[in-house]
């Protein structure tokens, strides 16, 4: 079996007759793993083809996307600008671990108040930004666009080359990775998205719009689960933290606290409920995000266990 594919011998899956595996996309690259790298792949090629040597993007202070763009810039020789939502740190205040690493990777950080940040997709605002920082290849917040979907679609074929599956399960933030994955599925294959944020019902419309843009159609072969957010984006509970620790003890895998832990908790609960047919094969996708642990520990303390 491929080193990125791991059997999960969970008692609940065995009891329900479901074969459960984990795709370790978090191990796909030593410096730039996971779905953020997949979203960047064809965007970086386009940036080069268009003659750009600078990348500019947006994100929150703990953004996996900002971290990934900064790393890509270091690895591939792009200058990078990160426009960060929120106030700049006051004098004498250290950056959080995510921004510290982004700066170490060469990213030039600038801060936007929340009202200005909401304009990040407006053409006039983007023109202002380009005038200020110079010509740059602009990546949207989270990295989701049509080219990003092409990179995510390849994940389905990579997994299919290793194992026949019925369902691919993944965490959902903006819906870009799920949308890309849908364009790569074939025949009866299904996708299951577990929303990491509260009030995620809007995500279906987002996913459908993205697939219409990328593939010319909306897809019906997926479900979106919105009951496993644990209070909302970056929220947690003692139950979730206990689950992360126990999962690591059982399988030697550290899930991230924002996305993949909620996804894995949801998948196991759905298996317990009989959501998947007996005899089916479910592959849960570890999309990375471990860089979030440094900031998490700074705010909430060590996970322990």
TrEMBL record:
Single GO term (MF): D-cysteine desulfhydrase activity
Residues with PTM N6-(pyridoxal phosphate)lysine: 36
Entry cofactors: pyridoxal 5'-phosphate
Signal peptide start-end: none
Gene3D superfamilies linked to this entry: 3.40.50.1100
Catalytic-site annotation from UniProt: 63
Superkingdom, taxonomy of origin: Bacteria
Pfam families named in the record: PALP
Keywords, ordered alphabetically: Pyridoxal phosphate
InterPro entries for the chain: ACCD_DCysDesulf (IPR027278), TrpB-like_PALP (IPR001926), TrpB-like_PALP_sf (IPR036052)
Domain Tryptophan synthase beta chain-like PALP: 17-288
Family named by the database record: Belongs to the ACC deaminase/D-cysteine desulfhydrase family.
Protein name: 1-aminocyclopropane-1-carboxylate deaminase/D-cysteine desulfhydrase
Organism listed in the record: Hymenobacter properus
């Amino acid at each position: 079996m491929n080193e990125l594919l791991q059997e999960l011998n969970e008692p609940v899956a065995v009891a329900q007759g479901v074969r459960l595996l984990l795709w370790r996309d978090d191990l796909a690259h030593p410096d730039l793993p996971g779905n953020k790298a997949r979203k960047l792949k064809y965007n970086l090629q386009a940036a080069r083809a268009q003659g750009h040597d600078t990348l500019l993007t947006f994100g929150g202070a703990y953004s996996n996307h900002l971290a990934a763009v900064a790393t890509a810039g270091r690895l591939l020789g792009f200058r990078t600008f990160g426009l960060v939502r929120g106030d700049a740190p006051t004098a004498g205040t250290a950056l959080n671990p995510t921004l510290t690493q982004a700066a170490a990777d060469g990213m030039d950080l600038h801060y936007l108040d929340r009202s200005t940040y909401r304009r990040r997709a407006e053409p006039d605002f983007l023109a202002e930004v380009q005038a200020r920082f110079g010509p740059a290849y602009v990546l949207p917040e989270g990295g989701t666009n049509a080219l990003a979907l092409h990179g995510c679609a390849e994940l389905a074929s990579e997994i299919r080359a290793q194992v026949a599956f019925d369902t691919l399960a993944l965490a959902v933030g903006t819906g870009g990775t799920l949308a890309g994955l849908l364009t790569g599925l074939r025949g009866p294959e299904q996708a299951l998205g577990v929303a990491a944020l509260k009030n995620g019902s809007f995500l279906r419309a987002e996913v459908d719009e993205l697939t219409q843009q990328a593939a010319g159609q909306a897809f019906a072969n997926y479900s979106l689960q919105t009951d496993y957010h644990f209070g909302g984006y970056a929220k947690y509970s003692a139950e979730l933290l206990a689950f992360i620790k126990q999962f690591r003890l059982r399988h030697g895998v550290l899930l991230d606290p924002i996305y993949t832990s909620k996804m894995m908790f949801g998948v196991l609960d759905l298996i317990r409920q009989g959501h998947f047919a007996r005899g089916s094969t479910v592959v849960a996708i570890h999309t990375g995000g471990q860089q979030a642990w440094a900031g998490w520990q700074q705010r909430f303390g060590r996970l322990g266990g």
